[in-house]
Design brief:
This protein has 273 residues and is mainly β. It has two domains: 2-159, Immunoglobulin-like, CATH 2.60.40.680; 166-254, Sandwich (Immunoglobulin-like). It contains two helices and 21 strands.
């Protein structure tokens, strides 16, 4: 019924014409901010919370169709309502079609989902955008400005593990006698969860240098940075920024630059005892 009503008012065409190719129709995911920057929720939560469905990386589109039902790991969560500045048919829990009222490139926040949480949520609980069950193709859909249906990719928002989003630096903060070929590693909330889409790994800004206020040296979609050869007997400072989150400034000090560490020599000698 939803599809017939929308077609009759020339809002959406959700059935592919014969022989039409299916094009890539952008990325639709849930965020904790309306700008579509933060794909993780910093803490477990209780009370009234808004989640934002954001459409990005699209050519010009005139409509989208998807669902975003609350997952079982949202313990004690109660769906309250959807709000949108666009014309909608249906709701996020059972399937919704949204007309944008014209051609828009990467239209941004198309739907806000209001939830009341009565208990803390499971750590790293994924909240996915999924296909509308009423859509015959079984895909998340966007519609271009020529009324051609496109397949869109869906993403997820993750509830992070609560205390510190950016954590577990390697080398450890204050570490000494570190190799001059040391690489930097860190953890960002739920980024260790395999979620099937590259955007589930957040972009991180890496600040690194020999002063307590290190400069920005790289932006990458991974939790690993190789600074190259380091100077011996030198203290290095580094930090990571991801979205609106920022780690403390960590530090470590390199060793004299011996090509083989003492522990390694010990292991070699043990072979000949």
């Amino acid at each position: 019924m939803k599809r017939l009503i929308l077609t009759s008012i020339a809002v959406l065409v959700l059935v592919l014409p014969a022989g039409s190719a299916v094009a890539q129709g952008g990325f639709i995911s849930i965020y904790s901010d309306a700008a579509g920057i933060d794909g993780e929720y910093l803490d477990n939560f209780t009370g009234l919370v808004n989640f934002y469905v954001v459409v990005q990386l699209t050519p010009a589109v005139s409509a989208v169709q998807f669902a975003a039902p609350l997952p079982a790991c949202f313990t004690g969560a109660l769906y309250i309502a959807d709000t949108s500045s666009f014309l909608t048919m249906g709701n996020s829990q059972t399937g919704v079609a949204i007309s944008l009222g014209g051609c828009m490139s990467s239209p941004g926040n198309v739907l806000t989902i209001q939830v009341f949480a009565m208990a803390q949520t499971s750590t790293c609980c994924p909240y996915y955008v999924v296909p509308d069950p009423a859509e015959p193709s079984g895909t998340i859909v966007s519609v271009d400005c020529n009324n051609v249906k496109q397949v869109a990719s869906g993403g997820a928002l993750y509830i992070s593990d609560g205390a510190t989003r950016i954590h577990s630096p390697i080398p450890a903060d204050g570490a000494v006698d570190q190799s001059v070929v040391a690489a930097l590693r860190w953890s960002i909330g739920c980024s260790s969860v395999v979620c099937g889409a590259a955007r589930c790994i957040p972009f991180a800004d890496v600040y690194f240098g020999t002063t307590p206020d290190p400069p920005l040296v790289a932006t990458m979609q991974q939790s690993y940075y190789d600074p190259g050869g380091l100077a011996p007997n030198t203290t290095y400072y580094w930090k990571i920024k991801e979205g609106d989150a920022e780690s403390p400034v960590w530090s470590f000090t390199t060793n004299a630059g011996n090509p083989v560490a003492v522990d390694t020599w010990g292991a070699i000698k043990a072979l000949y005892r």
